[in-house]
Amino acid sequence: TRRVQEALESWQPPARLPVTLGERSYEIVVGDGLLARAGALLAPVLPARHAVVVTDETVGPLHLPTLRAGLEEAGFALLAEITVPPGEASKDFSRLQLVLERMLAAGADRRTAVIALGGGVVGDLAGFAAAIALRGLPFVQVPTTLLAQVDSSVGGKTGVNLALGKNLVGAFHQPRIVLADTATLATLPARELRAGYAEVAKHGLLSGERLWHWCETQGEALVRGESEALVTAVLESCRLKSAVVAGDEREESAEGGRALLNLGHTFGHALEAECGYGGTLLHGEAVAVGLGLAASLSARLGHCSQELPGRVIAHLQACGLPARIGDLPRGFSVAALLGRMRKDKKVRDGALRFVLLRGPGEAFTAGDVPAETVERLLRDEGC
Ligand code: NAD
Ligand code: MG
């Protein structure tokens, strides 16, 4: 009874964060132990008490039993539990078709909710299936990686990959609710947790001195898996991302808005593409190096203080992330990286385009970065 009492006393109601998008508005619920109460949380925002769950082979055995119990407790019927192989390869057309066929064969109708339980791969795949099945089913995100909780589950982007490139096919389809259960992160491999933290640090740099300073003081506790730090990071990240999304839902602004969320990603995507999407370099690790390089480039171009890059790099490294090219276990060719950056979706009219910093909270898009400056930076970084 003492343990029960302690648990009751330490129990915090989950935090709720609104995402304001007119009639597509929804809430992000953040806290420990949400899966077990999923039915009660979902019932008010869904048209009916039936659903299909999409998960992957790693997450399903760990967390689906808790979610299933939480849904059934509130009278939800699970028409199908669809499990896909873990990893980026599941974000493709043949897998999408299988998921759609399973959903519809199980009797899903226009009121059946599609619940994504997993990381960004499951969220993007299940979300796209929800967007196109019967021309659109209600969708619920239950993200189980830090990356998915702070980034991919918020904003409504869904999709799959083509051999030509990542995320080239998809739809905007906003969820009805996001349940970010930070307790699910306890089973996430430490390397995945650190990689997700890179996007938190990015949000810190985008948000301003307050959140960036929080990162510098609490980031190391977070990557050790401390619950309080995780809840704060998810909440503050979602606050930043949802505010950006609310101002530019469909990434129509070329300069501000959602484009700023690409801080660190021009370099990051180039490094990731050079390594192939096989897990040798995780997206978040590439972004961490990209943040270090974006800060260094900003300093070289005279936009921010000369101290900022050192601060960014030291912090990411203290959290166990690579922050410079020299931190990575392999070398890169400057020409290959420049070639990749020229092909990046964000490149317009052949000029190199980067999100740069004047300081924390002061990001901007520069479309006129001289290739020579980038080349010299990459060489000096030990490329
Ligand atoms: P992921 O979904 O592949 O998950 C990473 C690994 O962790 C997988 O092996 C998974 O099985 C495992 N896993 C997930 N949750 C777990 C848990 N709680 N315990 C143990 N293992 C767990 O990868 P990710 O990093 O979550 O997401 C990457 C994907 O997200 C990419 O495809 C990327 O394009 C996409 N993404 C989308 C958006 C968006 O706005 N839609 C934004 C950023 C990234
Ligand atoms: Mg990213």
UniProtKB/TrEMBL annotation:
Co-factor note (free text): Binds 1 Mg(2+) ion per subunit.
Source taxon at top rank: Bacteria
Residues covered by the 3-dehydroquinate synthase C-terminal domain: 196-347
Functional pathway: Metabolic intermediate biosynthesis; chorismate biosynthesis; chorismate from D-erythrose 4-phosphate and phosphoenolpyruvate: step 5/7; Metabolic intermediate biosynthesis; chorismate biosynthesis; chorismate from D-erythrose 4-phosphate and phosphoenolpyruvate: step 2/7
The protein's required cofactors: Mg(2+); NAD(+); Co(2+); Zn(2+)
Residues involved in Zn(2+) binding: E199, H265, H283
Reactions catalysed: 7-phospho-2-dehydro-3-deoxy-D-arabino-heptonate = 3-dehydroquinate + phosphate; shikimate + ATP = 3-phosphoshikimate + ADP + H(+)
Cited function: Catalyzes the specific phosphorylation of the 3-hydroxyl group of shikimic acid using ATP as a cosubstrate.
Subunit and partners: Monomer.
Similarity field: Belongs to the sugar phosphate cyclases superfamily. Dehydroquinate synthase family.
Protein name: Multifunctional fusion protein
Organism: Belnapia mucosa
